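FORM 7B: Structural annotation worksheet

SECTION A. Query
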Amino acid sequence: MKRIFLLVSASLIIANLAACAGNAPAPTAPGGVGVVIQTDGGTFTNITAQELNAMLQHKDFTLINTHIPYEGEIEPTDAFVPYDALDENLGKLPADKNAKIVLYCRSDRMSTIAAQALVKKGYTNLYNLKGGMVAWANAGLPIAIKE
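SECTION B. Predicted structure
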């Protein structure tokens, strides 16, 4: 009976510890902006539409649209780099792999893939718009369509 009690008690303690670990806050990036995402080879930071909007007030980064096909853009986008053609378009990215780059697409699927690939290529200061242009528009922010 004591053994069963000890086993049940140990199981409950382990379950509680696991639950607490799952509720730990996600690490934030330096400056308290965004959530750091660990990926193969390094990290990138997911940011919200509101955080990107605030960052645009004092823009010190390259803003890259990775979505294909073209479905609009956030002003002031610096370049279009298709998420699946990074190698062919590295010249559109800053030569300094420590330069701040913000990636986005329509929903964040393509920009997340691009962020993971750029981390593997040695880029160290990457941000990804979580939810993409959909989240941007849902926050009441404008999407530009250029033809």
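SECTION C. Observations
The helical segments are 2-22, 49-56, 109-120, 132-138. Residues 1-25 have pLDDT under 50 and may be disordered.

SECTION D. Sign-off
Analyst initials: ____
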